[in-house]
Amino acid sequence: MMRRFLRQPGGRLASIFAALLFAMSAVMGSYLYSACQKASADYTTLISDIVLAQQATPQLRAALEESSRLPDREHIQYIDYFISLSKQHLNNIQRSIERHRYLIADVEYLNTHFSELNSRLSDLRQQAQEAQQRPELRDPLQSMAIEIGGAQSWLYNQLLEKVRAISVQQRLVMQRLSIAVSALLVLMVSAAITLCLAVIYLQRQRNIMHRLMLTDELTGLYNRRHLVNVASAALIQAQRDRVPLSLLLLDLDHFKQINDNYGHPTGDEVLRQISQLLRQLSRPADTLARIGGEEFCLLMPSTTTHDALQAADRLRREVEVNTFRGIDLHTHPTVSIGVTTCQSGSLSFEQLYSFADKALYQAKALGRNRVESLLPPGDPLTYTEAQACTHILIRESSDS
C-alpha cells in the first residue's frame, strides 16, 4: 500500500514535504537544545568571585602601605595573607570559567594574564620577605603592588564585560528561543497535518482502487468478481436460513445493431441509461452487476421463483417502454431474461448461473423480449408450473 502511495505524484510530494519538515524540525530541535543550554547558564557564582577578587585588591595595597608601622613578623604575615587571598580568588575565577563551556572561548585570550598575574603575586610574596631584611626594597614593593593591582583591575573588568555581553546575548537568545519554539510548533503541526492528509489521501486512493476492483467502469454497477463474492455469501446464508435465492440473467436484444448503426458511444450511453433504470427498479437487498458486454445479472435473496418471474417481467416491460434521454433511436432496445431459483442454498454459484444462462438462451431462441425460467432438478416448483407462470406473464404484457 505504501509503495503504491509513493508511486503516485501526490504521494511523492507529500513524502518529500514530510521529509523536509522532519529535517527542518531536527535542525530546529538542535538549535533549541543549544540555545536552551546557553540561555540557562548561571553566572552568579562567577560574578561573586570577581566582585570578591576586586575587593581584595585594595586590601592588599592598603596592607603594603601600612606595613611600615607594623613589626616585621606581623608585616610579613599580613601581606602574605592578602597575597594568598588574591591567588585564591584567581583560582576560583578560573574554576568558575571552566564550568561555563560557552564562556571559555570568549575569555581564552585572558589565560596568559591569569598565569602572569599568579606569577607576579608569587614574586610579590618573595620580594616582601626580602624587604624584611632590606628596608630599601619597601618602596619598589609599593610600586610593584600598584602595578599588580592595576593588572588585577583590568583583568576583572574584562571578565565582567564579557559576562555582561553574554547576559545581553542570553536575553537575545531567549527572544529567539521563543520565536524558534513557536516556529517548531508550527512545523510540528504542519508535519502532523501533512501526515494526516497523506493518510487520508492514501485511504481515499485505497477506496478508489477497491471500488474499481468491484465495479464496472462504464455503468458503475458491480462487476462479476463482486457478484461471485456476494452470491457465495448469499448461498451460505440461504442454506442457513433455508430460504430460496433467485438469479436473473438479462441480455439486451440485438445490441450489436445499435453499435453498428449508431456507433459505440451511443451504445455505451444506452448501457449506462439501462443500468440506471435497472438500479432504480431493483430492491436495496438485491445485487445488480454487469457481467458482460450487454449482459446483466440480478441476485435476489429470499425470493421465490414466482416473485422472481414477476420482477423479471416488470424489468422487461420497463426497458421496453423506456425513453432514452439524448439518444435518437428508431427502435427501442428490449431485454431477454432468464430466471432460476435455488431452494435453501443447495447449489453453488456456478451451478445456479448455468441454469439461469440456459433459461436466457431459451428466451433468446423463443423470439427475445421475454422471460424464461429453468429450475434445478428437485425444486418444489415443477418445470410445467414455471412455464405456465412465464406464459401468463407474457400474455398479460401483450394484452396491456
Automatic annotation (TrEMBL):
- Name-wise, this protein is diguanylate cyclase
Against InterPro entries, the record matches this protein to:
Diguanylate_Cyclase, GGDEF_dom, Nucleotide_cyclase, Rev_trsase/Diguanyl_cyclase
Q: Which domain of life is it from?
A: Bacteria
Native source organism of the sequence: Halomonas campaniensis
Give GO cellular component annotations, separated by semicolons.
Answer: plasma membrane
Task: Quote the PROSITE patterns the UniProt record gives.
Answer: GGDEF (PS50887)
GO BP terms:
cell adhesion involved in single-species biofilm formation; negative regulation of bacterial-type flagellum-dependent cell motility
Pfam family for this entry, one: GGDEF
